[in-house]
TrEMBL record, chain A:
Residues 71-121 form the NADH-Ubiquinone oxidoreductase (complex I) chain 5 N-terminal domain. Its main location: membrane. GO terms for cellular component: membrane. Keywords: Membrane, Transmembrane, Transmembrane helix. It is found in: Membrane. This is Unannotated protein. It holds the Pfam family Proton_antipo_N. The chain crosses the membrane at residues 6-24, 87-108, 120-137, 183-204, 210-229, 250-268, 280-301, 374-396, 416-439, 459-480, 509-528, 612-631.
Automatic annotation (TrEMBL), chain B:
NCBIfam families: NDH_I_M, PRK05846.1-4. The lineage of its organism: unclassified sequences, metagenomes, ecological metagenomes. The chain crosses the membrane at residues 6-23, 32-51, 71-101, 113-131, 137-155, 167-188, 216-238, 250-273, 279-301, 308-329, 335-358, 379-400, 412-432, 458-475. One of its GO terms (cellular component) is membrane. Residues 57-126 form the NADH:ubiquinone oxidoreductase chain 4 N-terminal domain. GO terms for biological process: ATP synthesis coupled electron transport; electron transport coupled proton transport. Residues 131-425 form the NADH:quinone oxidoreductase/Mrp antiporter transmembrane domain. Belongs to the complex I subunit 4 family. One of its GO terms (molecular function) is ubiquinone binding. This is Unannotated protein. It is a multi-pass membrane protein. It is found in: Membrane. Keywords: Membrane, NAD, Translocase, Transmembrane, Transmembrane helix.
UniProtKB/TrEMBL annotation, chain C:
Pfam families: Oxidored_q2. This is Unannotated protein. The keyword Transmembrane applies. It comes from freshwater metagenome. GO terms for cellular component: NADH dehydrogenase complex.
Length: 632, 505, 99
């Protein structure tokens, strides 16, 4: 592999920014945001430079690596702090730094009234650095460092306003649920080392060729657990909605465009494991299918604009995971949807932030309405993102989602029809809830209070939104034309990706037609239900049981609380009591026994000389008798 | 005279120096104590630089007859294991002195006595790790209790007298069992080729023991060490002692003294009784896993911040013990590295918790709130220390914890899997106090707490720096540790399990 | 005569002395009984000296006598002192050892 010495700058620049801003403290208040943005932008510059270098090399030499130092070296367990930049990671690098930089710019204005803006930028830089390490690490263990690093940054950013107890709880919840996923990654690495003897991507890839399916299935399932934790997939999805406690730019960057897609990256990166483990693949598909419907259903019931978008994110990542689970046919399309989603969802989150900015930080969509007139730029950029996500041609989401639906149908047999139907159903629901968001926010009659004065956001905020909306318009066609992205990524997936077009359940044009019909149905229902009828400013309470369950996030929190949290609390209390009374009680019992024995024996010390004499006599006789018995 | 002996004597010289300073000149006393401990630390680092990593034998050895009629020698020397632990001890002591600048005042005796006790303790700590004569080790092992007893009983808080006695009784009980085993070893050695207490010669004695004898002698040592490095269910003295001592004392207690237990397991239990170690390994692994989960659950349920840290330590000692008895190179190296890293992360936690308690005059977690806004530097220090305690990758504990888990998994997958659940619990037991004490609204009573002053920043800064540096680059320590870990595994007759899927290739 | 008979006598004397110490309350009587036991021991020492044909036993007997004499001096003095202060020579009244 070609080695390079400049990869490390990608990570080092934002890391430098984060450390400087954290150590400088209040001194950096004046220029902290500028430094943070500059560091992110220069990392993007390095990324572009790497891309140009990569394009100038022939296909087989495009992947480059850099070994920084030997990190852990204990007998056969050897892990280098090494970086790997190939066709897959460069996509992520550019997405992270590119979208990241735009969001830095947005945040300069969005956070300008916060006295801790400097710290916010430090966290953002820390996140960029950790996320880059995640996608650049050349082994599962270096990936793990980035993996938990982004978890930490996410924790810090969700809890950025942690003076509100609910926000502090939300950040803790996110970290703990992520840790469950991290545990899965730990297991995967342990199994990989125990069975294959290595944890580097290259090493595992090589060793997996001769490995048994059992081992690879175990690794694959554990990797899926990790991915589910980070990407908010079923059953570890419950943290994402609460994570919206963080400032909106954070939701856009971390909880829409980049961090939550790390799970998809992990699955796609581990393609060599999943290709050889059909059972694990099947579970991946199932998890993706469940989550895509789960998130979509929750999305229909949310009145909080950010939570509605979060549910949508969960659902869209479900699409990606499902597609990645379909094997070589799906990897490239999963990544494609991931990239287009990065554009349009980040753009929509920034749009939501812009709306909140104009509406005194209110997030209740039932209190919006008619904002089209007051925020034209936000409306247009959000609208372009909307068209992209529901999959209207020629916007980005159309191409990427269409390909996923097609791949699902092509999975073969009953499975293919089932999966295809699920993805189509998901498309219907997506169109419905996104149209609902559009209508409630922008096009319906106004429902806000008189003291709110909606206004368009400043340039620094709408500029990134415009750039992202351009991305959500063009990126799909760009990746789709001539299978550009697929061909670009193919070398990463080995030779698998070439011959998967022979089986077509439906012609592509039929699939597109079905998808568009699905979208039309979803949009139609939403228009009938919201645009053409009165909208309550307060959510109606006399609704069906299904709506109520959907509003409660399909009971995910109730389930977690009653199955894990409460029994855990009871167990903790029991153990605390047990430790005090049983374990330590035994110790104190010994002490009390000694004291009691002393008190009892003290009574024999009567002070009467004659009883002492008698005792001496008895003792002497007993001794002699003893000796006599022994020597007899 | 070997440089090791000089290193051990140096703190005593400092103690003598302090003894002649008038008790009223408290500042002079503190300066002398700080100067001495820094000097010791520098000398130890010099020794580390002169240490030959490729050599697995004892280095800087010195031996002199002490009680010739019993074959007892003053014999000291270091290998990779003891070097790491001596470094831990001498690096933490100056930090403890600096961090607890004022905790010597208000005790039962003068500040002068406090620092004399600390310095005497430092000598003992060096001695206990350096001794290569079992009897000498025992003497240090027991003598170490005396300064700690007075430090807890004389300068602590709360029910300090009761806690000190509890600590002393637990330790003495273990020590007594160990003494019986040592005498047993002596008798066996005198029957087989000459009475000796030399660790290297004694490690051949297992060839002459019946399996029952070996098991009994092993238990004598092991119970003593399991009390020191508290293993469930012998742990209950630790929370009391740690909560009652001054923060500095608790740092030394949890950070260094308890390591004598895990150190002894490697140095004595494994090398003296290899067969008995194999016999008891399943039991010990089970106890270690219980400790990991049990300590974590109790930490989650703890209301007092000092007790919480003590319980997290029980969990971490479970990891160390598991790594030691997993009998793989990774597990072993990880366990030794863990001893060092745990020392530093716990030290950071305890030091900062001590400052929080001193400012707020309460150690109940619920009394704090919103410190991040009032005292950002203090809150961040606590946070980073906590992150190290929950083994966040990039901080030092992660490397060691992961090595232990990986090393255990290759031989005892079930134990490793159960232990891995501890990392989720770790997230809870760190984030709960972080949320309650640092996050949330600033609660009444916390509005005017002062942030760290320059001295305190200087005390905690190096600890955090070491935590971060070793997280990214553990090689300096691993290079010292690896040879000794490999040697112990080899001498136990184990080889690392071969990757199961590549066996055929 | 069979030297073992001396041992029987000594045993008898010792038993009488021991019973006397335990049963009687008067300090003077207890004291006499102690003397009786000492003399029983002396008799045993001398007897064994005779049986074994060595002199150590007899020498030890002399030591015992000297010690017994000293003991009488100190012991009687204590008894008299106690009698003077308490007007009683009963040893059960002097259970001060308890404290």
């Amino acid at each position: 592999m070609v080695t390079s010495s400049s990869l490390v700058y990608l990570i080092a620049l934002p890391l430098f920014g984060a450390i400087t801003l954290l150590l400088a403290g209040r001194r950096a208040d004046k220029w902290g945001h500028l430094l943070g943005t500059a560091m992110s932008a220069s990392s993007f510059g390095v990324g572009l430079y790497q891309l140009s270098q990569m394009l100038s090399r022939p296909t087989e030499e495009r992947a480059i690596g850099q070994k920084l130092f030997t990190w852990i070296d204990v007998a056969s367990f050897q892990v280098d702090a090494g970086l790997l930049l190939d066709q897959l990671s460069i996509c992520f690098v550019l997405l992270i730094t590119g979208v990241g930089t735009l969001i830095h710019i947005y945040s300069i204005s969005y956070m300008s009234h916060d006295e801790n803006r400097r710290r916010f930028f430090a966290y953002l830089n820390l996140f960029i650095a950790a996320m880059l390490l995640l996608v650049l690490g050349d082994s599962y263990l270096t990936l793990y460092v980035g993996w938990e690093g982004v978890g930490l940054a996410s924790y810090l950013l969700i809890g950025f306003w942690n003076q509100k107890p609910a926000y502090a709880t939300a950040s803790k919840k996110a970290f703990v649920m992520n840790r469950i996923g991290d545990m899965g990654l730990s297991f995967a690495i342990m199994i990989a080392f125990a069975t294959l003897g290595t944890v580097s991507f290259a090493g595992v890839k090589e060793a997996s060729e001769g490995a048994s399916e059992t081992a690879l299935t175990a690794i694959g399932i554990m990797l899926l657990v990790a991915a589910a934790g980070k990407s908010a997939q079923f059953p570890l999805q419950a943290w994402l909605g609460d994570a919206m406690a963080g400032p909106t730019p954070v939701s856009a960057l971390i909880h829409a465009a980049t961090m939550v897609t790390a799970g998809v990256y992990l699955i796609v990166r581990s393609n060599f494991i999943f290709d050889a483990a059909p059972t694990a693949q099947l579970i991946v598909v199932i998890v993706g299918a469940i989550t895509l419907l789960f998130g979509a259903v929750i999305g229909t019931a949310k009145d909080d604009i950010k939570k509605a978008l979060a549910a949508s994110t969960m659902s869209q990542i479900g699409y990606m995971v499902l597609c990645a689970g379909l094997g070589p046919a799906g990897y490239a399309f999963a990544i494609m949807h991931l990239l287009t989603h990065g554009f349009f969802k980040a753009g929509m989150f920034l749009g939501a932030g812009s709306v909140m900015h104009g509406m005194n930080d209110s997030v209740d969509m039932r209190r919006y309405g008619g904002l089209r007139k007051f925020m034209p730029i936000t409306f247009i950029t959000f609208g372009l993102g909307y068209l992209a996500i529901i999959g209207v041609p020629p916007f980005a989401g159309f191409y990427s989602k269409d390909l996923i639906i097609e791949t699902a149908f092509n999975a073969g047999g009953f499975k293919g029809i089932l999966l295809g139907s699920i993805t189509l159903l998901g498309a219907v629901i997506t169109a419905f809830y996104m149209t609902r968001v559009m209508i409630l926010t922008f096009t319906s009659p106004k429902r806000w209070e008189e003291d709110q004065h909606p206004h368009e956001s400043p340039f620094l905020m709408w500029f990134p939104m415009v750039i992202l909306s351009i991305g959500s318009v063009t990126s799909g066609l760009l990746f789709y034309r001539g299978d550009a992205l697929k061909n670009w990524l193919n070398p990463v997936f080995g030779d698998h990706g070439k011959d998967h077009y022979e089986e077509h359940l439906f012609e592509p044009i039929v699939v597109s037609a079905m998808a568009l019909t699905a979208v039309a149905i979803g949009v139609g229902i939403a228009i009938m239900k919201y645009q053409l009828s009165e909208i309550d400013a307060v959510a109606p309470q006399n609704v069906s049981i299904f709506t109520r369950i959907a509003r409660k996030d399909l009971l995910q929190d109730s389930f977690n609380e009653s199955v894990f949290m409460r029994p855990g609390q009871v167990l903790t209390r029991l153990l605390v009591k047990g430790d005090e009374n049983v374990v330590d009680g035994a110790v104190r019992g010994i002490g009390r026994t000694a004291l009691g024995a002393g008190a009892t024996l003290r009574r024999t010390q009567s002070g009467f000389a004659r009883s002492y004499a008698a005792l001496i006599l008895i003792g002497a006789v007993a001794l002699i008798a003893g000796i006599w018995v022994v020597t007899l | 005279m070997s440089s090791l002996t000089l290193l051990g004597i140096l703190p005593l010289v400092g103690a003598l120096l302090i003894a002649v300073i008038p008790a009223e000149q408290v500042l002079r006393v503190k300066q002398a104590a700080l100067g001495t401990t820094i000097l010791v630390a520098i000398s130890a680092i010099m020794m580390w630089l002169n240490f030959d990593e490729s050599n697995t034998a004892f280095q800087f050895v010195q031996s002199a007859e002490w009680i010739p009629s019993f074959g007892i020698n003053y014999a000291v020397g270091v290998d990779g294991l003891s070097l790491v632990l001596i470094l831990l001890a001498v690096l933490l002591t100056p930090i403890v002195v600096l961090a607890g600048w004022n905790e010597s005042e208000g005790g039962r005796w003068s500040a002068k006595v406090f620092y004399i006790l600390i310095l005497v303790l430092e000598t003992m700590m060096i001695g206990v790790f350096a001794a290569t004569d079992v009897f000498l080790f025992y003497v240090f092992f027991e003598a170490m209790l005396i300064p700690v007893y007075f430090l807890i009983g004389g300068y602590g808080s709360g029910e300090r007298a009761a806690a000190a006695v509890k600590f002393l009784l637990f330790s003495l009980f273990g020590g007594l069992l160990m003494l019986a085993s040592i005498i047993g070893l002596y008798v066996i050695s005198s029957k087989n080729g000459g009475a000796t207490f030399d660790i290297t010669e004694l490690s051949q004695m297992h060839n002459y023991m019946s399996s029952t004898t070996q098991n009994l002698l092993f238990l004598g040592f092991f119970i003593a060490f399991a009390i020191k490095a508290p293993l469930w269910p012998l742990h209950t003295w630790l929370p009391d002692a740690a909560a009652s001592g001054t923060p500095g004392t608790s740092v030394l207690l949890l950070g260094v003294l308890d390591k004598v237990g895990t150190f002894g397991m490697i140095r004595f239990c494994l090398s003296l009784f290899p067969d008995a170690s194999k016999t008891f390994t399943p039991v010990i692994i089970v106890l270690a896993v219980i400790s990991i989960l049990y300590g974590a659950f109790l930490a989650i349920g703890a209301r007092d911040i000092k007790r919480l840290i003590a319980y997290t330590s029980i969990s971490h000692f479970g990891f160390i013990t598991m790594g030691i008895f997993a009998m793989t190179t990774q597990g072993h190296s990880g366990a030794i590295l863990y001893m060092f890293n745990h020392g530093f992360s716990t030290a950071a936690l305890f030091i900062v918790a001590g400052w929080m308690i001193a400012r707020r005059k309460s150690s109940t977690i619920a009394d704090f709130g919103g410190l991040q806004r009032v005292t950002p530097v203090m809150a961040w220090s606590f946070f980073i220390a906590g992150m190290s305690s929950l083994a966040l990758p990039g901080l030092s504990s992660f490397v060691s914890e992961f090595l232990v888990l990986v090393g255990t998994f290759t031989r005892y997958p079930v134990a490793a899997v159960l232990a891995t659940f501890g990392i989720v619990l770790a997230a809870l037991y760190i984030l709960i106090p972080v949320q309650k004490a640092l996050h949330g609204p600033t609660t009444p009573g916390n509005e005017n707490l002062p942030d760290l002053n320059l001295r305190e920043k200087f005390a905690v800064g190096p600890v955090l720096a070491i935590i971060i540096a070793l997280g990214f680059y553990p090689a300096p320590l691993l290079n010292v540790i690896n040879p000794v870990a490999a040697q112990v595994i080899e001498s136990q007759g184990f080889t690392d399990p071969v990757p199961s899927e590549s066996a055929g290739k | 005569m069979n030297p073992y008979n001396y041992l029987y006598v000594a045993g008898l004397l010792f038993t009488i002395g021991a019973i006397g110490v335990i049963v009687r309350r008067n300090a003077i009587v207890v004291f006499m009984c102690i003397e009786l036991m000492l003399n029983a021991a002396n008799l045993t020492l001398v007897t064994f000296s005779r049986i074994n044909g060595t002199l150590e036993g007899q020498v030890t007997a002399f030591f015992t006598m000297v010690v017994a004499a000293c003991e009488v001096v100190v012991g009687l003095a204590i008894i008299i002192a106690i009698y003077r202060s308490r007007r009683s020579a009963s040893i059960d009244d002097a259970s001060l050892l308890k404290r």
